[in-house]
Design goal:
Layout: H1 9-62, E1 74-76, E2 97-103, E3 116-123, E4 138-143, E5 196-199, E6 202-210, E7 216-217, E8 241-248, H2 251-261, H3 271-280, E9 282-289
Antiparallel strand pairs: 1-2, 2-3, 3-4, 4-5, 6-7, 6-8, 8-9
Helix pairs in contact: 2-3
Length: 297
């Protein structure tokens, strides 16, 4: 009579235990690998966004056009502590902005006949307890000599009073409102083409403008968003060098932080959100040398 080999209950339990142990080890390995891959992907995303932002700003800044007492330059520093920028309608303008004329490699549309454009950079100011689609976006505006439909966009008081490009002679600057036809660098697009989104997840964007000897150019801070002034070389001199600082979060961290920040007030970020953000954000800096261009600094 032929015998058949069978497993005992103890052998089956032991085999199942070994199999379960192997499965747990494999699952742990795959979960760890997935976590490492996700963190690596998030880090790569931050570095890629920083590279895009700094490369674009560097090219524009290095191509700045300047002519003494002719072309306007405006560096608006951080105004988040100024009362006028803490009201709901104007919080979006609280962050630093940099406005200049440049022979840019990235004009606003293919119809532009000249690469000389009015270029502006800023980070949209967050209202912590409200969400906005512009939150966290580094914004860029380029205004060329042609509109998107190909028509003339070069300002002339007589022949083209609705043109938005005013790069020659000093025109008054203003944060918003006023008379856009005779102003330059308004931050509400009244005197320039629309803002375009460049990179997301930005928590801070600052500019340090310096003279030849390294001393800082403080820039001009309008007392209110409706104050106009003419950006003379004495008030906002053309810099010898500019340091750009950008701080970013990855997408997951940004989304979590933004939800946490909603529990704050319009102008105050909750302490827990501050801690969470500071533990996860990355800061990148780049110094762009402009050199001597007739500014005499």
């Amino acid at each position: 009579m032929e015998r058949t080999s069978k497993f005992t209950l103890i052998e089956l339990i032991a085999a199942m235990g070994v199999f379960s142990l192997i499965m747990v080890m494999m699952l742990t390995f795959f979960m760890s690998a997935q976590l490492i891959w996700r963190k690596s992907s998030q880090e790569s995303q931050i570095f890629e966004n920083a590279r895009i932002a700094l490369d674009l700003m560097s090219r524009d800044i290095q191509c700045m056009y300047y002519e003494t007492n002719k072309t306007p330059f405006w560096f608006k520093p951080d105004t988040s502590a100024v009362a006028a920028y803490q009201v709901a309608a104007d919080i979006q303008y609280k962050n630093p902005s940099l406005c200049f004329i440049a022979d840019t490699l990235v004009p606003p549309n293919p119809y532009c006949e000249s690469r000389l454009c009015e270029v502006k950079y800023q980070l949209y100011g967050i209202t912590y307890n409200l969400k906005n689609t512009n939150d966290g976006w580094m914004l860029r505006s380029a205004t060329g000599d042609r509109k998107d439909d190909g028509s003339n966009n070069l300002y002339n008081v007589t022949t083209n009073p609705t043109g938005k490009l005013k790069f020659y002679n000093y025109y008054p600057v203003r944060v918003r409102g006023g008379s856009p036809a005779i102003q330059v660098y308004t931050l509400d697009n009244a005197s320039s083409d629309d803002w375009q989104k460049v990179v997301p997840g930005v928590t801070a964007l600052t500019f340090e403008c310096n003279r030849r000897d390294g001393t800082a150019i403080t820039g001009y801070t309008p007392a209110s968003t409706t104050t106009s002034y003419t950006p003379t070389a004495a008030q906002t001199p053309f810099p010898f060098s500019i340091r750009v600082n950008i701080t970013l979060l990855d997408t997951d961290s940004w989304n979590k932080w933004r939800v946490m920040a909603l529990s704050g007030s319009a102008t105050s970020e909750p302490a827990a959100a501050v801690t969470f953000r500071q533990q996860r954000e990355r800061k990148f800096s780049k110094i762009i040398l402009l050199g001597e261009r007739g500014q005499g600094l």
